[in-house]
Amino acid sequence: MSSKQSGDIVEQIVLYLKTILEISFTLFQFSELAGGELLDLLNTVIYKIDDSQPEKIGTEKIEATVERISEFLRIMKYEFPVDPEEWDVRFSNADKDLIYPVLNWLLSDFENMKKRAYKARYSEEIPIPEEIKANNTVSELIGELHELQERFEAVLQEYDEIGGTNVDELKKTQQALEADKARLATKISGFKRKLAKVPNLEEMLKWTSKLREASDRELKLNEELQQLIQAKHDLEVRQHTALENTKNVKKHMEEKLNFLRNELSNLQNAGKTSSDDKGIAIPQQQVAAARKRLDQKRRQLADMQKAHQEAEEQLKEKQENGAIEVPSPTQFAAYVRNLKTKNENYKELQATLAQARKELAVMMRTEEIVEQQAKKTKGEISRIEHERGVGGFREARAQLEKVSATKADLDDMKGKTLEEMSTISKEIQRNIQARQSELKPLVAKLQDIRKKKAAVESKYLQSKQRYQNAVSEYDTVCMELDEESKKLRGEIGTYQSKYHNVAQMLAGLDRTLKRVREEQTATETGNPVSKTIKTYAKYFQKASHELKKETKALKEQKKTIGNQTEANQKQLEAFQSLRRLLQVKLECTKIAKQKKEDELKQDENERRNPDEIIDIL
């Protein structure tokens, strides 16, 4: 990665950290991060994405940290730029060329990374060996796990869709549904009015309710049939997976058997064909290796038997303490009876389902027959109407009945409306009369108060006019006096400034005259003006000469400083580079010292516990 690319990535990471996680770094501070600090920062970012990860590394070993972060990146579908071994080595050393791209990749799409981590927590495949998959219980659990994962993805997708739904659209949909509800209510009321005039209504409602019950029963039976079909399909899928797993196990065992047979035949051929010591040495080595493996397996078997015995003892202790309840024979027999009862209920429900299907077929056939008879009756009536020249009589009659019902409803509504209007108008008139009778004394009082108000208002206007005239006269007088005072103050300031200027000029002339007299007496008599000044001419010449010397020295100093600035800057940069190199060297020394201490501790542990190394091997 070039230096320009690295600088761009660092700028992006610093910006992402400030805007997303509110972690502020300068470019120099971030570039100075190394080793444990850089890994801590990466671990903090991962914790913000997936809170199931540890918040801080703490006392976790570097190998465990590298393994955990690498597994997290693998689950998040990160494309590793190097081989796994090289990745582990460079990542444990906190290589910036590896960590910077990881930070940039995680922070560039932070919200999507959080969703991906949450989804991967429940959708990640669990690696299971083929031998374990052959077990029926395990295969069923794996199938249930896949079903749950599919349901989880469907629910998550539905949640995302609901989260992106617009509230305004939902409100519009709700309003449309309410309007539909109102329209349906009006239609239902119309149907009720129509049905009130239909003869044999109770019998029709009875048959309609029976038909609805039959249709509901049909729907339930169809749902149960679909559930049975789905259960049959699931059983077929599980049976298929179990057969495939059995085939895989059988094939694996056959391959292993063939391999062992080939190995045995090779050993037998080698024993027959070799007559010298060199030919016998190879089978002996293989026999020794086989014996060694056999001993290892025996030791493992003994350890497993010991662990099994310890587990049985713990189980007995927990049973004695009452921590674990093992079903008694009576409880197990009751459980078996319960299963038999459920099986009998299932068979009874199956018989009921078959009977309901038969009844449904009969009802459907009866419905078809009734519909055919109704069609025939309608056709016969229409034929008779056309023969007698009154075609469409029934339709016209139905329309007339509909119009008459509508007209009757409208008349009822008009009558009710007129009655309500007359009642409201009478109530309004009564309220007006009562209000007038209540307001008469108040109106009389109001008229008296208005007369008083007019008299007071006229007095107020006269007084207001007099007050305004007085105020205007006062304002004019004040303005004149202000102008005169401003003029006088200006003249006073002018005269004072002139006075001070003249006084200063006189004082300067007096000082000059005094110096001239002192200079004259000093030149004539030879006596100095003061202890430090003989004459003013010599004093001013000496001061001028000193100022010229100081000016010349300052110019030379400026020239020298200008020539030495570039060299001093280079020296400062060299000292800064040397300081950084020394810091890096110090960190490398600390890391090497820590690694050496860890290796010494590991060697010491291996010398103390050689049995653990044998168990690991």
Automatic annotation (TrEMBL):
Subcellular localization, as worded in the UniProt entry: Cell projection, Cilium
Coiled-coil zones: 138-187
Keyword Coiled coil: yes
Lineage: Eukaryota, Metamonada, Parabasalia, Tritrichomonadida, Tritrichomonadidae
UniProt entry keywords in alphabetical sequence: Cell projection, Cilium, Cilium biogenesis/degradation, Coiled coil
Domain IFT81 calponin homology: 11-122
Region listing for Disordered, in residue ranges: 298-321, 595-617
Name this protein carries in UniProt: IFT81 calponin homology domain-containing protein
Bias kind Basic and acidic residues: ranges: 298-320, 595-611
A GO CC annotation given for this chain: intraciliary transport particle B
